[in-house]
Design brief:
Order of helices and strands: EEHEEEEEEE
Domain PPC: 9-146
Number of helices: 1
Pfam families: PCC (PF03479)
Shape: flat
Number of domains: 1
InterPro entries: DNA_bp_PD1, PPC_dom
Number of strands: 9
Low-confidence stretches: none
Helix content: under 10%
Largest sheet: 7 strands, antiparallel
CATH class: Alpha Beta
Protein name: DUF296 domain-containing protein
Organism: Bradyrhizobium pachyrhizi
CATH architecture: 2-Layer Sandwich
CATH superfamily: Hypothetical protein, similar to alpha- acetolactate decarboxylase, domain 2
CATH topology: 60s Ribosomal Protein L30, Chain: A
Length: 149
């Protein structure tokens, strides 16, 4: 993984993060966010995976139903946010649409993706701190816009 700060404006720092073949995308982006001490940001990405796992959230079971994509696929669109989780570390929430060789698509929450040949992400930091808190009644963590720590 390589990254470059392309804007250091007080209103929004912009990083370009480029992942290499073989890297696991969700883990690598989480590591970048932790290393860069990102506390509030939006994220977009394009590229491709050799395989990926996306999830569909099932409210009844309060868990993600995994959807495995075991073939080369294009990252047509990935969009998400970064906040600070209950553990004080970066918490990513990314939705993704993947294009398959026959032109069909699969999508959901990005749970994992093995990059091939690249994933290019743009992380735009806000001069703020966002907190994602676990919501036991839902089974997921959501951004709490009024939380300060």
């Amino acid at each position: 993984m390589k990254s470059k700060l392309v804007s250091d404006a007080p209103s929004a720092q912009v990083h370009v993060v480029v992942l290499d073949s073989g890297e696991e995308a969700f883990g690598a982006l989480t590591k970048f966010a932790n290393d860069a001490k990102v506390t509030a940001a939006s994220l977009t990405a394009i590229g491709a995976f050799e395989r990926a796992t996306v999830g569909w959230f099932d409210f009844t079971s309060k868990s993600y139903r995994k959807i495995e994509i075991n073939e080369q696929c294009e990252v047509l669109c990935a969009i998400g946010d970064i906040a600070t989780g209950d553990d004080g570390k970066a918490s990513l929430h990314i939705h993704i649409v993947l294009g398959l060789s026959d032109g069909s698509t699969r999508g959901g929450h990005l749970l994992a993706g093995i990059v091939r040949p690249t994933l290019e992400a743009v992380v735009t930091e806000a001069p703020a701190r966002l907190r994602r808190r676990k919501r036991p009644e839902l089974g997921i963590a959501l951004i709490d816009p009024v939380a300060t720590a």
